[in-house]
Amino acid sequence: MTEENVRGAFLIQEHYCKAMAAPAYARVCAALAKGLNRDSRVGTTLLDWPGEPTRAALPLRLVGGLHALVLAGKDAGLAAVFAGTVADPEAIEAELARVLVEHDAELLPWLDGPPQTNEPGRSAALMTGLIEIARRHGPRIELLEIGSSAGLNLMIDRYRFDLGGTLAGPESSPITIIPEWRGPPPPDVPIEIMSTRGCDIQPIDATDPAAEARLLAYVWAETPDRAVRLRRAIALQRERPVRLEQADAADWIEARLAEPQAEGVTRVLMHSVVWQYLPEPVAERIRVAMKAAGTRATPERPLGWVMMEPDRALAHQAIRVRSWPGDGAWQTLATSHAHAAWIHVGQPERDRAGIALPEAAKISV
What is the DSSP secondary structure assignment for residue 255, as one 8-state letter? Predict the structure, then answer.
């Protein structure tokens, strides 16, 4: 990959940030796209990145590390940039050039792995899909999640939701998730999540204070309400752990699909913002396994697939479902903000941030 690909990845992330009303983060990404140099090991590592930088979410890796410095109170100048107090592009570029050199050793490890943007708010998008599965096949659902990260969406059965006036989840929950709803609400059908299990190639124990701090670093500084909700979700996990395993996604799904399925319960694969990180052979094995399991599905033992994954042409997420028995065709229910701050039902809203996205940034599921 060339340096232009890396700079382009930061411009794509700027595009996303603008589309998601995060101007300070957009300015940071624009400044990095322009000003990255080889004065630090971080800059050199970025500019020499061997893979596809957009699929690797390279900008989010670095911005997470920068935010960690801010949260730890280690750089007042950088904090002013993240707070939006410093907004001049040249001043931001100069600040970031300084920070990459002065905090080189602290920032470098943030490039080692994909960002852990585990976001409880995304459960609202996933619940939108699960309600459609319940409408088709009945209320009882067994959930299997891949790419569970810290397992915060595995607690989807413990959150309360208000989806355009359609309510779901326990009334007593300390976390109520209310996205801005655009369009008709989902059908008001009963839904009962019987169990939740998940896997991740590198699962995170969110109850560990160091892991909690890392997760908070990936929460955008411009959305403090998300940080509050994240802390509450982790507190729920400390009360009762989730069933989260370390495993390859394809290995795990193949094993789960081979297990006996209870009569009257729909088995559902779900995931959010994970498909782009899967190697293509792993993704293909999951497609094949789900298609094969779909041919065996019956009205008594249905199979569903619910996802919230990027539609990069829109700079938003697509909420899609498919299920068996039936033709197993994908249906796009809605689009959403990346953190499900809003959900738009019907025809997707075209983004106007104005950047052409490369073919490499598109994802096929």
Answer: H
